[in-house]
Design brief:
Blueprint lengths: L8 H35 L6 E6 H4 L8 E11 L2 E13 L5 E5 L10 E3 L4 E3 L6 E2 L5 E3 L9 E6 L2 E8 L9
Antiparallel strand pairs: 1-10, 2-3, 3-4, 5-6, 6-7, 7-8, 9-10
The structure holds FE2/S2 (inorganic) cluster (FES).
Length: 173
């Protein structure tokens, strides 16, 4: 009796490969949506949120050309958790009464700035960067003026967004 062609080793090998490929395709098709659901929060861009800064009437009372550092707290979703990110807003009123909402981050490498009243300048302790009261670079390595927070007025309250209005890379928070 001759061995049937169905039992030949080459046919069995072929069937094994085909079944293996089909199993792999089904496995990938099932795994991709599950992995996508699990991992997507890690790759999602950070939420854009607003935080209260203060009443506009109070902010208008600050002394002209005298920066006031005010903390804000952004509640942002990161991955699977919601974190509170404290940040500083430097409010400056110019001589016309216009308000500016600067970040206290140096635009060189992000160190926190100090206001030196005697010199009327923001000083960066890291590499000596200096900015004038309206955020213009007046010394050191910073490549650009201070970042300004996105902001809006809502029922008399100034809200700050966790984003800079003039930074394409959005280093806000
Ligand atoms: S980080 Fe401010 S000068 Fe370098």
């Amino acid at each position: 009796m001759t061995k049937s062609s169905e039992d030949s080793p080459s046919r069995r090998t072929f069937m094994t490969v085909v079944i293996g490929l089909i199993s792999a395709v089904i496995g990938v098709a099932v795994a991709i949506p599950i992995l996508g659901t699990i991992l997507s929060p890690l790759f999602k861009k950070r939420d854009i949120v607003w935080a209260e800064l203060g009443k506009i009437d109070d902010l208008k009372k600050i002394k002209p050309l005298t920066p006031k550092f005010i903390p804000v707290y952004f509640r942002v979703k990161e991955g699977w958790t919601i974190n509170t990110l404290p940040r500083q807003v430097v409010v400056v009123k110019d001589i016309t009464g216009k308000l500016y909402f600067f970040s206290n981050q140096c635009t060189h490498l992000g160190c926190p700035l100090h206001w030196i009243a005697a010199r009327q300048k923001f000083l960066c302790p890291c590499h000596g960067g200096m900015f004038n009261v309206l955020g213009k670079v007046v010394g050191g390595p910073p490549p650009r003026p201070l970042y300004r927070w996105v902001h809006k007025l809502n029922n008399g309250t100034v809200l700050i967004q966790n984003k800079f209005m003039d930074n394409p890379k959005d280093r806000g928070v």
